[in-house]
Amino acid sequence: MPGFELFGDREKQQVQDVLDSGVLMRYGFDGARNGHWKALELEKAISKRMETAHTQLVSSGTAALTIALASAGVGAGDEVILPTFTFVASFESILALGAVPILVDVDDTLTLHPEAVKKAINKKTKVVMPVHMCGSMADLEALKAICNANGLLLLEDACQAIGGSYQGKPLGSYGDLGCFSFDYVKTITCGEGGAIITNNKTYYKNADHYSDHGHDHIGTNRGAEDHPFLGYNYRISELNAAVGVAQIERLDEFLSIQEEHYTILRDALRNTDGITFRRVPKGGVENYSFLSFSLPTAELAKKAHDALSVAGLDACFYWYDNNWHYYKKWSHLTNLTSLGKLPKEVCEQLPDYNTADFSMSDHWIGRNISCLIKLGWTKEEVKLRAEKMAEVLKQFV
Ligand SMILES: *Cc1c(COP(=O)(O)O)cnc(C)c1O
Protein backbone atom coordinates (compact mmCIF):
# COMPACT_ATOMS: atom_id res chain seq x y z
CA MET A 1 0.00 0.00 0.00
CA PRO A 2 2.52 2.70 0.93
CA GLY A 3 3.36 5.31 -1.71
CA PHE A 4 6.45 6.27 0.28
CA GLU A 5 8.11 3.14 -1.11
CA LEU A 6 8.30 4.80 -4.50
CA PHE A 7 9.33 8.31 -3.46
CA GLY A 8 11.64 9.82 -6.06
CA ASP A 9 12.68 12.67 -8.30
CA ARG A 10 9.17 13.84 -9.19
CA GLU A 11 8.28 14.32 -5.54
CA LYS A 12 11.57 16.13 -4.90
CA GLN A 13 11.04 18.49 -7.86
CA GLN A 14 7.55 19.42 -6.67
CA VAL A 15 8.85 20.19 -3.18
CA GLN A 16 11.78 22.12 -4.66
CA ASP A 17 9.34 24.43 -6.51
CA VAL A 18 7.86 25.39 -3.15
CA LEU A 19 11.24 25.79 -1.44
CA ASP A 20 12.46 28.01 -4.28
CA SER A 21 9.55 30.40 -3.86
CA GLY A 22 9.62 30.25 -0.07
CA VAL A 23 5.82 30.40 0.08
CA LEU A 24 4.89 27.46 2.28
CA MET A 25 1.25 28.49 2.78
CA ARG A 26 -1.60 27.55 0.47
CA TYR A 27 -3.38 30.93 0.62
CA GLY A 28 -2.16 34.40 -0.39
CA PHE A 29 1.33 35.75 -1.14
CA ASP A 30 0.33 35.73 -4.82
CA GLY A 31 3.32 37.76 -6.06
CA ALA A 32 6.01 35.70 -4.36
CA ARG A 33 4.90 32.20 -5.27
CA ASN A 34 6.26 31.93 -8.82
CA GLY A 35 2.87 30.75 -10.01
CA HIS A 36 2.93 27.66 -7.76
CA TRP A 37 -0.33 26.72 -6.07
CA LYS A 38 0.32 23.11 -5.04
CA ALA A 39 -2.73 22.61 -2.82
CA LEU A 40 -5.03 23.99 -5.52
CA GLU A 41 -3.33 21.87 -8.16
CA LEU A 42 -3.74 18.73 -6.07
CA GLU A 43 -7.41 19.53 -5.39
CA LYS A 44 -8.01 19.82 -9.14
CA ALA A 45 -6.21 16.52 -9.79
CA ILE A 46 -8.22 14.73 -7.10
CA SER A 47 -11.54 16.09 -8.41
CA LYS A 48 -10.65 14.90 -11.91
CA ARG A 49 -9.47 11.43 -10.86
CA MET A 50 -12.44 10.96 -8.51
CA GLU A 51 -14.97 12.31 -11.04
CA THR A 52 -16.34 14.62 -8.38
CA ALA A 53 -17.15 18.33 -8.56
CA HIS A 54 -15.32 19.52 -5.43
CA THR A 55 -12.26 18.62 -3.35
CA GLN A 56 -11.08 20.24 -0.13
CA LEU A 57 -7.54 19.33 0.82
CA VAL A 58 -6.72 19.39 4.55
CA SER A 59 -4.06 18.44 7.08
CA SER A 60 -4.99 14.77 7.65
CA GLY A 61 -7.54 12.05 7.02
CA THR A 62 -8.82 12.50 10.57
CA ALA A 63 -9.31 16.22 9.87
CA ALA A 64 -11.08 15.33 6.60
CA LEU A 65 -13.61 13.16 8.45
CA THR A 66 -14.16 15.83 11.10
CA ILE A 67 -14.66 18.56 8.49
CA ALA A 68 -16.91 16.38 6.33
CA LEU A 69 -19.21 15.86 9.31
CA ALA A 70 -19.02 19.53 10.33
CA SER A 71 -19.71 20.72 6.79
CA ALA A 72 -22.95 18.73 6.77
CA GLY A 73 -24.03 20.32 10.07
CA VAL A 74 -23.31 17.39 12.41
CA GLY A 75 -22.96 18.53 16.02
CA ALA A 76 -23.54 17.72 19.68
CA GLY A 77 -25.74 14.68 20.28
CA ASP A 78 -26.06 13.68 16.62
CA GLU A 79 -25.42 9.98 16.14
CA VAL A 80 -23.07 8.59 13.49
CA ILE A 81 -23.12 4.87 12.66
CA LEU A 82 -19.73 3.28 12.00
CA PRO A 83 -18.22 -0.22 11.97
CA THR A 84 -16.48 -2.11 14.80
CA PHE A 85 -13.54 -2.67 12.43
CA THR A 86 -11.94 0.62 11.42
CA PHE A 87 -9.23 3.01 12.60
CA VAL A 88 -9.54 5.08 15.80
CA ALA A 89 -9.74 8.23 13.63
CA SER A 90 -13.33 7.31 12.73
CA PHE A 91 -14.70 7.80 16.24
CA GLU A 92 -12.21 10.57 17.08
CA SER A 93 -13.65 12.70 14.27
CA ILE A 94 -17.18 12.14 15.56
CA LEU A 95 -16.30 12.88 19.20
CA ALA A 96 -14.43 16.05 18.14
CA LEU A 97 -17.80 17.54 17.23
CA GLY A 98 -19.64 16.35 20.34
CA ALA A 99 -21.44 13.78 18.21
CA VAL A 100 -21.87 10.16 19.29
CA PRO A 101 -20.18 7.17 17.61
CA ILE A 102 -22.58 4.22 17.30
CA LEU A 103 -20.63 1.05 16.54
CA VAL A 104 -22.32 -1.72 14.58
CA ASP A 105 -21.29 -5.14 13.29
CA VAL A 106 -19.30 -5.95 10.16
CA ASP A 107 -20.04 -8.95 7.92
CA ASP A 108 -18.04 -11.04 5.44
CA THR A 109 -17.15 -7.87 3.51
CA LEU A 110 -15.29 -6.78 6.70
CA THR A 111 -17.30 -3.57 6.47
CA LEU A 112 -20.72 -2.37 7.71
CA HIS A 113 -23.45 -5.01 7.75
CA PRO A 114 -26.51 -3.25 6.25
CA GLU A 115 -29.00 -5.06 8.54
CA ALA A 116 -27.02 -4.04 11.62
CA VAL A 117 -27.08 -0.44 10.37
CA LYS A 118 -30.87 -0.55 10.04
CA LYS A 119 -31.24 -1.73 13.62
CA ALA A 120 -29.09 1.07 15.00
CA ILE A 121 -31.10 3.93 13.45
CA ASN A 122 -33.15 6.19 15.72
CA LYS A 123 -34.33 9.81 15.73
CA LYS A 124 -30.86 11.11 16.60
CA THR A 125 -29.08 9.32 13.76
CA LYS A 126 -27.65 11.72 11.15
CA VAL A 127 -24.93 9.87 9.24
CA VAL A 128 -23.91 6.40 8.15
CA MET A 129 -20.11 6.16 7.82
CA PRO A 130 -18.94 3.02 6.04
CA VAL A 131 -15.18 2.45 6.19
CA HIS A 132 -13.67 0.74 3.16
CA MET A 133 -11.02 -1.12 5.15
CA CYS A 134 -7.96 -2.73 3.59
CA GLY A 135 -8.73 -1.79 0.00
CA SER A 136 -12.27 -3.13 -0.40
CA MET A 137 -15.66 -1.55 -0.01
CA ALA A 138 -18.93 -1.72 1.87
CA ASP A 139 -22.18 -2.71 0.18
CA LEU A 140 -22.82 0.88 -0.85
CA GLU A 141 -26.03 0.28 -2.79
CA ALA A 142 -27.73 -1.25 0.25
CA LEU A 143 -26.39 1.48 2.53
CA LYS A 144 -27.52 4.25 0.20
CA ALA A 145 -31.02 2.79 0.08
CA ILE A 146 -31.12 2.75 3.89
CA CYS A 147 -29.87 6.35 4.02
CA ASN A 148 -32.43 7.51 1.47
CA ALA A 149 -35.28 5.78 3.28
CA ASN A 150 -34.31 7.40 6.59
CA GLY A 151 -33.07 10.84 5.50
CA LEU A 152 -29.47 10.12 6.50
CA LEU A 153 -26.16 11.15 4.97
CA LEU A 154 -23.75 8.61 3.53
CA LEU A 155 -20.12 9.51 4.31
CA GLU A 156 -17.50 7.15 2.86
CA ASP A 157 -14.21 6.76 4.71
CA ALA A 158 -12.10 5.72 1.72
CA CYS A 159 -8.77 6.41 3.45
CA GLN A 160 -7.61 2.82 2.90
CA ALA A 161 -9.18 2.24 -0.50
CA ILE A 162 -8.23 5.16 -2.76
CA GLY A 163 -8.45 4.13 -6.41
CA GLY A 164 -10.93 1.30 -5.85
CA SER A 165 -14.37 1.62 -7.44
CA TYR A 166 -17.99 0.56 -7.03
CA GLN A 167 -20.47 0.26 -9.88
CA GLY A 168 -18.04 2.21 -12.05
CA LYS A 169 -17.65 5.08 -9.57
CA PRO A 170 -14.41 5.84 -7.71
CA LEU A 171 -14.69 4.94 -4.01
CA GLY A 172 -15.44 8.09 -2.03
CA SER A 173 -17.60 9.54 -4.80
CA TYR A 174 -20.67 7.33 -4.33
CA GLY A 175 -21.91 8.82 -1.06
CA ASP A 176 -22.80 12.41 -0.16
CA LEU A 177 -19.24 12.96 1.02
CA GLY A 178 -16.02 10.92 0.80
CA CYS A 179 -12.70 11.18 2.64
CA PHE A 180 -9.11 10.22 1.87
CA SER A 181 -5.92 10.17 3.92
CA PHE A 182 -2.46 10.93 2.57
CA ASP A 183 -0.56 10.05 5.72
CA TYR A 184 2.81 8.38 5.42
CA VAL A 185 1.57 4.78 5.09
CA LYS A 186 -1.36 5.25 2.70
CA THR A 187 -1.43 4.25 -1.00
CA ILE A 188 -0.39 7.76 -2.00
CA THR A 189 1.11 10.13 0.55
CA CYS A 190 1.70 13.82 1.25
CA GLY A 191 3.68 12.98 4.39
CA GLU A 192 0.55 14.15 6.20
CA GLY A 193 -2.67 15.20 4.49
CA GLY A 194 -6.26 14.37 3.71
CA ALA A 195 -9.13 15.33 1.42
CA ILE A 196 -12.91 15.61 1.34
CA ILE A 197 -14.72 15.11 -1.95
CA THR A 198 -18.35 15.97 -2.66
CA ASN A 199 -20.74 17.03 -5.40
CA ASN A 200 -22.65 19.18 -2.90
CA LYS A 201 -21.66 22.84 -3.34
CA THR A 202 -22.80 23.89 0.13
CA TYR A 203 -20.85 21.16 1.91
CA TYR A 204 -17.80 22.09 -0.14
CA LYS A 205 -18.10 25.78 0.71
CA ASN A 206 -18.57 24.91 4.36
CA ALA A 207 -15.51 22.64 4.29
CA ASP A 208 -13.43 25.36 2.60
CA HIS A 209 -14.34 27.91 5.28
CA TYR A 210 -14.36 25.57 8.28
CA SER A 211 -10.86 24.21 7.60
CA ASP A 212 -9.46 27.77 7.67
CA HIS A 213 -10.98 29.46 10.77
CA GLY A 214 -14.28 30.15 8.99
CA HIS A 215 -12.61 32.54 6.48
CA ASP A 216 -14.93 33.11 3.54
CA HIS A 217 -12.02 33.46 1.06
CA ILE A 218 -13.67 36.38 -0.74
CA GLY A 219 -11.37 39.05 -2.17
CA THR A 220 -7.58 39.24 -2.05
CA ASN A 221 -7.06 40.75 1.40
CA ARG A 222 -6.98 37.91 3.90
CA GLY A 223 -7.26 40.30 6.85
CA ALA A 224 -10.49 41.72 5.46
CA GLU A 225 -12.22 38.36 5.01
CA ASP A 226 -15.40 37.71 6.90
CA HIS A 227 -16.10 34.65 9.04
CA PRO A 228 -19.72 33.62 8.57
CA PHE A 229 -19.40 30.80 11.14
CA LEU A 230 -16.94 29.28 13.60
CA GLY A 231 -14.12 27.23 12.16
CA TYR A 232 -10.73 25.81 12.99
CA ASN A 233 -7.29 25.44 11.40
CA TYR A 234 -7.01 22.21 9.44
CA ARG A 235 -4.94 23.65 6.57
CA ILE A 236 -2.39 21.60 4.66
CA SER A 237 0.98 23.21 3.90
CA GLU A 238 2.24 23.72 0.35
CA LEU A 239 5.20 21.42 1.08
CA ASN A 240 2.91 18.51 1.89
CA ALA A 241 0.59 19.27 -1.01
CA ALA A 242 3.57 19.33 -3.38
CA VAL A 243 4.43 15.72 -2.52
CA GLY A 244 0.81 14.76 -3.23
CA VAL A 245 0.86 16.46 -6.67
CA ALA A 246 3.63 14.06 -7.70
CA GLN A 247 2.04 11.05 -6.02
CA ILE A 248 -1.45 11.35 -7.51
CA GLU A 249 0.06 11.27 -10.98
CA ARG A 250 1.39 7.84 -10.01
CA LEU A 251 -1.78 6.49 -8.41
CA ASP A 252 -2.79 4.31 -11.34
CA GLU A 253 0.76 3.00 -11.70
CA PHE A 254 0.74 2.07 -7.97
CA LEU A 255 -2.65 0.37 -8.32
CA SER A 256 -1.51 -1.78 -11.20
CA ILE A 257 1.60 -2.89 -9.27
CA GLN A 258 -0.62 -3.75 -6.30
CA GLU A 259 -3.02 -5.70 -8.48
CA GLU A 260 -0.17 -7.71 -9.99
CA HIS A 261 1.31 -8.60 -6.59
CA TYR A 262 -2.11 -9.31 -5.07
CA THR A 263 -3.03 -11.65 -7.92
CA ILE A 264 0.15 -13.72 -7.54
CA LEU A 265 -0.50 -14.17 -3.81
CA ARG A 266 -4.18 -14.93 -4.28
CA ASP A 267 -3.55 -17.47 -7.02
CA ALA A 268 -1.13 -19.33 -4.74
CA LEU A 269 -3.85 -19.70 -2.07
CA ARG A 270 -6.76 -20.30 -4.41
CA ASN A 271 -6.65 -24.08 -4.23
CA THR A 272 -6.12 -24.41 -0.50
CA ASP A 273 -9.31 -25.89 0.93
CA GLY A 274 -10.36 -24.06 4.07
CA ILE A 275 -9.17 -20.64 2.93
CA THR A 276 -11.90 -18.28 1.81
CA PHE A 277 -11.39 -14.77 0.52
CA ARG A 278 -13.13 -11.69 1.77
CA ARG A 279 -16.41 -10.98 -0.07
CA VAL A 280 -16.24 -8.00 -2.42
CA PRO A 281 -19.74 -6.55 -3.02
CA LYS A 282 -21.11 -6.97 -6.54
CA GLY A 283 -19.85 -4.21 -8.84
CA GLY A 284 -16.85 -3.51 -6.63
CA VAL A 285 -13.20 -3.33 -7.69
CA GLU A 286 -10.61 -3.35 -4.91
CA ASN A 287 -7.55 -1.12 -4.84
CA TYR A 288 -5.53 -4.26 -4.00
CA SER A 289 -3.70 -2.76 -1.03
CA PHE A 290 -4.29 -5.91 1.08
CA LEU A 291 -5.16 -9.55 0.49
CA SER A 292 -7.68 -10.59 3.16
CA PHE A 293 -8.76 -14.19 3.76
CA SER A 294 -10.43 -16.34 6.40
CA LEU A 295 -9.38 -19.57 8.07
CA PRO A 296 -11.90 -22.10 9.41
CA THR A 297 -11.72 -20.92 13.05
CA ALA A 298 -10.37 -17.97 15.05
CA GLU A 299 -7.98 -20.29 16.85
CA LEU A 300 -6.49 -21.50 13.57
CA ALA A 301 -6.26 -17.95 12.24
CA LYS A 302 -4.31 -16.79 15.28
CA LYS A 303 -1.94 -19.74 15.05
CA ALA A 304 -1.52 -19.29 11.30
CA HIS A 305 -0.73 -15.61 11.80
CA ASP A 306 1.97 -16.46 14.36
CA ALA A 307 3.41 -19.06 11.97
CA LEU A 308 3.52 -16.53 9.11
CA SER A 309 5.58 -14.19 11.32
CA VAL A 310 7.93 -16.99 12.35
CA ALA A 311 8.42 -17.84 8.66
CA GLY A 312 9.54 -14.24 8.07
CA LEU A 313 6.36 -13.24 6.23
CA ASP A 314 5.98 -9.81 7.78
CA ALA A 315 3.19 -7.33 7.04
CA CYS A 316 0.39 -9.84 7.68
CA PHE A 317 -2.13 -8.61 10.23
CA TYR A 318 -4.45 -10.36 12.67
CA TRP A 319 -6.81 -7.46 13.31
CA TYR A 320 -8.78 -9.18 16.06
CA ASP A 321 -5.90 -8.51 18.50
CA ASN A 322 -4.85 -5.18 17.00
CA ASN A 323 -4.62 -2.07 19.19
CA TRP A 324 -5.72 0.42 16.55
CA HIS A 325 -8.29 -1.25 14.37
CA TYR A 326 -10.76 -3.34 16.35
CA TYR A 327 -13.27 -2.32 19.05
CA LYS A 328 -11.92 -4.86 21.58
CA LYS A 329 -8.86 -2.72 22.26
CA TRP A 330 -10.66 0.64 22.35
CA SER A 331 -10.97 0.85 26.13
CA HIS A 332 -10.42 4.63 25.98
CA LEU A 333 -13.62 4.90 23.94
CA THR A 334 -15.57 2.32 25.91
CA ASN A 335 -14.65 3.97 29.23
CA LEU A 336 -14.69 7.53 27.83
CA THR A 337 -11.21 8.18 29.17
CA SER A 338 -10.53 11.79 28.27
CA LEU A 339 -8.15 14.51 29.47
CA GLY A 340 -11.02 16.90 30.01
CA LYS A 341 -14.76 16.76 30.49
CA LEU A 342 -16.70 15.42 27.50
CA PRO A 343 -20.01 16.86 26.26
CA LYS A 344 -23.02 15.68 28.25
CA GLU A 345 -24.64 14.23 25.09
CA VAL A 346 -21.69 11.92 24.51
CA CYS A 347 -21.67 10.71 28.13
CA GLU A 348 -25.41 10.11 28.13
CA GLN A 349 -25.87 8.56 24.70
CA LEU A 350 -22.77 6.41 24.20
CA PRO A 351 -23.88 2.77 24.35
CA ASP A 352 -22.11 0.47 26.82
CA TYR A 353 -19.61 -1.21 24.53
CA ASN A 354 -18.34 -3.39 27.41
CA THR A 355 -21.56 -5.39 27.24
CA ALA A 356 -22.55 -4.92 23.58
CA ASP A 357 -22.95 -8.06 21.47
CA PHE A 358 -20.63 -7.90 18.46
CA SER A 359 -20.44 -11.65 17.97
CA MET A 360 -20.97 -11.28 14.22
CA SER A 361 -17.92 -9.01 13.95
CA ASP A 362 -15.93 -11.39 16.15
CA HIS A 363 -16.91 -14.27 13.87
CA TRP A 364 -15.53 -12.55 10.74
CA ILE A 365 -12.61 -10.56 12.15
CA GLY A 366 -11.53 -13.43 14.43
CA ARG A 367 -10.96 -15.70 11.42
CA ASN A 368 -9.41 -13.10 9.14
CA ILE A 369 -5.80 -12.41 8.22
CA SER A 370 -4.90 -9.44 5.99
CA CYS A 371 -1.58 -9.27 4.18
CA LEU A 372 -0.28 -5.88 3.09
CA ILE A 373 0.67 -5.65 -0.58
CA LYS A 374 3.94 -3.77 -0.96
CA LEU A 375 4.89 -1.75 -4.02
CA GLY A 376 8.62 -2.26 -3.62
CA TRP A 377 8.66 -6.05 -3.94
CA THR A 378 10.22 -7.53 -7.06
CA LYS A 379 8.19 -10.11 -8.98
CA GLU A 380 10.61 -12.82 -7.78
CA GLU A 381 10.07 -11.77 -4.18
CA VAL A 382 6.31 -11.92 -4.55
CA LYS A 383 6.45 -15.38 -6.12
CA LEU A 384 8.70 -16.69 -3.36
CA ARG A 385 6.45 -15.12 -0.78
CA ALA A 386 3.36 -16.69 -2.35
CA GLU A 387 4.91 -20.17 -2.23
CA LYS A 388 5.99 -19.75 1.38
CA MET A 389 2.58 -18.42 2.40
CA ALA A 390 0.77 -21.36 0.83
CA GLU A 391 3.18 -23.78 2.57
CA VAL A 392 2.61 -22.23 5.99
CA LEU A 393 -1.15 -21.86 5.68
CA LYS A 394 -1.68 -25.45 4.53
CA GLN A 395 -0.91 -26.59 8.08
CA PHE A 396 -3.83 -24.65 9.55
CA VAL A 397 -6.82 -25.45 7.38
C1 LIG B 1 -5.44 6.45 8.00
C2 LIG B 1 -6.87 6.41 8.26
C3 LIG B 1 -7.60 7.51 8.74
C4 LIG B 1 -6.95 8.77 9.22
O1 LIG B 1 -6.03 9.35 8.44
P1 LIG B 1 -4.82 10.24 9.02
O2 LIG B 1 -4.39 10.98 7.80
O3 LIG B 1 -3.76 9.32 9.54
O4 LIG B 1 -5.37 11.15 10.05
C5 LIG B 1 -8.96 7.41 8.84
N1 LIG B 1 -9.61 6.27 8.54
C6 LIG B 1 -8.96 5.18 8.11
C7 LIG B 1 -9.73 3.96 7.76
C8 LIG B 1 -7.58 5.20 7.98
O5 LIG B 1 -6.93 4.09 7.60
CATH hierarchy, class of the largest domain: Alpha Beta
Shape: globular
Helicity range = 25-40%
Could you say how many structural domains there are in total? 2
CATH fold group of the largest domain: Aspartate Aminotransferase, domain 2
Poorly predicted sequence stretches spanning 5 or more consecutive residues: none
Bound molecules: pyridoxal-5'-phosphate
Strand content: 5-15%
Per DSSP, the total helix count is 14
What is the first-to-last residue Cα distance? 27 Å
Describe this structure in words.
- The chain has helices at residues 9-21, 38-49, 61-71, 89-95, 114-120, 140-150, 201-210, 238-248, 251-269, 298-310, 331-334, 344-349, 359-366, 379-394, and strands spanning 54-58, 79-83, 100-104, 125-128, 153-157, 165-166, 169-170, 177-181, 194-198, 276-277, 284-285, 290-294, 316-317, 368-372.
- By secondary structure, the protein is α/β, with parallel strands linked by helices.
- It folds into two domains: 3-250, Aspartate Aminotransferase, domain 2 (3-Layer(aba) Sandwich), CATH 3.40.640; 252-396, Aspartate Aminotransferase, domain 1 (Alpha-Beta Complex).
- The strands form three sheets. It has a seven-stranded mixed sheet, with helices on both faces. The protein has a four-stranded antiparallel sheet with strand order 10-12-14-13.
- The longest helix has 19 residues, at 251-269.
- It binds pyridoxal-5'-phosphate.
- Pyridoxal-5'-phosphate is lined by residues 60-62, 86-87, 89-90, 131, 157, 159-160, 181, 183, 194.
